Amino acid sequence: MKYHLLEHESYRELLKAREEVKNSYLKQEKGLNDKKEKLFRSKDYAKWGYTGEGGIADIEKVQDKLATSKQAAFTYML
To answer: What is this structure's pTM?
Structure first.
């Protein structure tokens, strides 16, 4: 019986740790998306932090699409 109680306690600890990691992830994801929203509104491509091979030239090639599609723009940011 004592082993059974320890098993439940370990499971609760695991669930608690999982919930803490999940909450941390969601908080960081929200922070990142908030930064991207701000960058999207500013349209200052140099501040997007894009590190692709072509650099800012890659963004300039598709800037018309990026100016109107938030989803596409987010893929180039940070």
So the answer is: 0.74
